[in-house]
What we know:
The chain has two domains: 43-110; 120-186, Lysozyme (Orthogonal Bundle), CATH 1.10.530.10. The chain contains seven helices and no strands. It has helices spanning 2-24, 44-66, 73-84, 88-110, 120-130, 151-156, 168-182. The longest helix is centred in the N-terminal third of the chain and has 23 residues, at 2-24. The mean pLDDT is 79.
Amino acid sequence: MRLRTLGAVCATCATAASTSTAVAQAPTTTPPPADPALRPPGDPHSAAKRQLIDRHLQFARKLGHLRSDPLTRAERRRKRVALHGYTLAELRASTRRAAREVRRARERRFGGAPNVPIPAVLEQIARCESHGDPRAISAGGTYRGKYQFSFSTWASVGGDGDPAAASETEQDRRAAILYRTGGAGHWPVCGR
């Protein structure tokens, strides 16, 4: 009999204790402060903003690399501080603009679509022109790269800068564009 009574008393005490701790630990539902600087660090608004700022900075770094002008650590820090002043809507719009700029820079640098079909004959032309070396430069310096582009021909197919400094993929794409416009005749010796 004593054990039953003692068990009932313990069960009642445990229920009362769990109810009182649940009431004591009930969260208060106050709205977050309007000023973003006063929001607690765990606030979902702040987390979304931090994530957008990080993403924006990734796009800015990619854009710098594509333009051969990488951001320094100090520039990244200044940009991060400036982005904290944006509202969430402004930050979203700015991040979308940064993503578009990266896509455009990639298209300019690598010749548009990544899946430009490369005709098999171009591999033979490259082997004949430069032994397949994308950094090859002719003795006079006039013809450069894997396909021995002149500067004017390189510019005519959308190339920018020195053909020998461009990536091999870009040279393949530009050569494919050139091949589509006039066939192997652009390479009078090796295109036969």
